[in-house]
Specification:
Elements (H helix, E strand, L loop, with lengths): L5 E5 L2 H31 L7 H21 L5 E5 L1 H22 L11 H45 L1
Antiparallel strand pairs: 1-2
Helix pairs in contact: 1-2, 3-4
């Protein structure tokens, strides 16, 4: 069954395995740090700061990229959303924003999620974010095409050697 929301094509299986290895190592380190943060939150709540979670995410991201580079990964794949996927992604972004909007402005909407102001904010938010999602999707698509051309060029250079 073909997925109707996104298109994905892997260009090199060996490098996918190396990326999975780097990802698994990063996952284990991040889980360990998150467990440490949990223990701090439970045993010493006065020392806990929510920005610790952000720091763990940043450390995990840098470790992942560094470990991938050390393994020699030059990972190329093609990934972009279909039109239906772009519409669904925009709906998800809008829903997240509008649920937070309702929580912070519940008095303005008079405790009624069917208030005209609230429903019009849904439509306005969706219309504002839709072009940005399509622009980002075009960027993903053009990057995928560039990556495939670079991958084919690298393979041709290897065949010549």
């Amino acid at each position: 069954m073909k997925n109707k929301f996104y298109y994905y094509q892997l260009l090199d299986e060996r490098e996918e395995q190396l990326m999975n290895k780097a990802g698994a190592e990063t996952f284990h380190i991040s889980i360990g740090l998150l467990f440490l943060t949990y223990l701090i939150a439970v045993l010493a709540p006065s020392l806990f700061n929510p920005s610790m979670m952000l720091i763990i995410i940043i450390i995990g991201t840098f470790y992942f990229f560094n470990r991938s580079r050390n393994l020699g990964v030059t990972y190329y794949s093609r990934f972009h959303f279909t039109i239906l996927g772009c519409l669904l992604l925009t709906l998800v972004i809008t829903a997240i924003l509008m649920f937070q909007n309702y929580q912070f402005n519940i008095e303005i909407y008079q405790h009624n999620p069917l208030n005209f102001k609230y429903l019009s904010a849904w439509i306005l938010t969706y219309v504002i974010y839709l072009p940005w999602v399509f622009i980002g999707n075009l960027g993903l698509k053009s990057y995928g095409e560039w990556a495939q051309k670079k991958y084919e060029k690298d393979m041709d250079e290897l065949e010549e050697i």
